[in-house]
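user: Kindly work through both lines:
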Amino acid sequence: MRIIKYLLLIILVLAGLNSCRVSRSVVTPVNITGSAANYISTYSDLAVSEMRRTGVPASITLAQGMLESDFGRSSLARLGNNHFGIKCHNDWNGQTIRQHDDSRNECFRKYRRPEDSFYDHSDFLRSGSRYRFLFDLDPLDYKAWARGLKKAGYATNPEYANMLIRKIEENKLDSYDRGYTSSINNAQDKTPVKEETVPSKTSQQETITFGDVLARAPRILENNRVQYIIVKDGDTKEKLENEFQLLKWELARYNDLNDNFIPVPGQILYLEPKREKSDAGLEFHTTAKGETMHFISQKYGIKLKSLLEMNRMADGDIPVPGQKIWMQSQKPAN
């Protein structure tokens, strides 16, 4: 009798376990929400800042980021802060993350912050030999840039260029490109700069050329391994000196300005000495209309004196549109 009771108990326990297995609910993954509007709001100013720094159109940066990261929702973006699908390649020494792509378990770059992905994307295009021809294109011609990226092999999808163009046109991303260049044409509408407070080598037009779109990225950014900020509304020289604990002469000297300069919203100001030459992979710059040597010096984080010496130019010399500016070595004598 006792044996029968034990057998019945075992049968009941097994039935209960089986019932639990059948009725166990399936866990639904949490959906990560995202939209074009949110993505643009978060990263548009950073894209414009990168356009100022490297020349990659902000519209292209935003469209690629939206497409490659699915508006920041892809696992590569969420787990690796990689918004542009950039793979490791032989020259990558940073952290990595594995994802299935054209092949299984491919190696992709992993970043500490999403902003680092944007910086690396700009530098990746700027320093890559197969993308070099893109920087000869009009920065306002997003269609040519999109087709150029496809031609250079950025993505294998045959519709990649058309997908970028649709993203740009659906969201009017090209307006961020125009904001970068229109300041030259609308200089009279901007905050006036007293001529006597700006050195002769830095014209009012050039100072304003940096644009008036302010980055929502961290206040202190980095270019050519040199820290800089973008001047905001309300910033004064004295306020910046106090905020960043700088001596009265440092901002002027680090940025090749006179001692009494007046900061202009959108202007790049370095917080430490610029470098003697450009970052790796940026050997030359082709000048556009309205650019001065000081503008190029600020854009690439190179000391103005060094830039002039490399190009065998004197202080005050103005380059002509289309001129090749040497940024890592001295221009040949002939």
